[in-house]
Amino acid sequence: MNDFPVPVGPYQTARKHGGFLFLSGQIPLDPNSGNLVEGGISSQTERVILNIAGVLKSYGIDWKSVLKVTVYLTDLNDFAEMNGVYSRLIGEPYPARSTIGVASLPKSAKVEIEVTAALS
């Protein structure tokens, strides 16, 4: 069983540099099948957050080490629902965050999230 999916393109899942961990944007892929998870924005947001938690864990850190989050949504009308899942799963203290509306995402995902975390 995998904690996070393999990249869908020519990039690394994460890269360390200067005491920081830079995670590539994660979409809601099942870490074992590599398929997009079924359901709406809630289930997709939860899967992305769990995938990111798996990447962070592989570097010996967790969400409390995350400094900055960027959320990409294909429909900004999903903001409130995404935000509810995010706040429930992340917990305080919340990292700095931006949310950006985009026309589309890989594999027709509704949400993509990228993070920067401190390694120390």
Automatic annotation (TrEMBL):
<dbReference type="InterPro" id="IPR019897">
    <property type="entry name" value="RidA_CS"/>
</dbReference>
<dbReference type="InterPro" id="IPR035959">
    <property type="entry name" value="RutC-like_sf"/>
</dbReference>
<dbReference type="GO" id="GO:0005829">
    <property type="term" value="C:cytosol"/>
</dbReference>
<protein>
    <submittedName>
        <fullName>Putative endoribonuclease LPSP</fullName>
    </submittedName>
</protein>
<dbReference type="InterPro" id="IPR006056">
    <property type="entry name" value="RidA"/>
</dbReference>
<dbReference type="GO" id="GO:0019239">
    <property type="term" value="F:deaminase activity"/>
</dbReference>
<comment type="similarity">
    <text>Belongs to the RutC family.</text>
</comment>
<dbReference type="Pfam" id="PF01042">
    <property type="entry name" value="Ribonuc_L-PSP"/>
</dbReference>
<dbReference type="InterPro" id="IPR006175">
    <property type="entry name" value="YjgF/YER057c/UK114"/>
</dbReference>
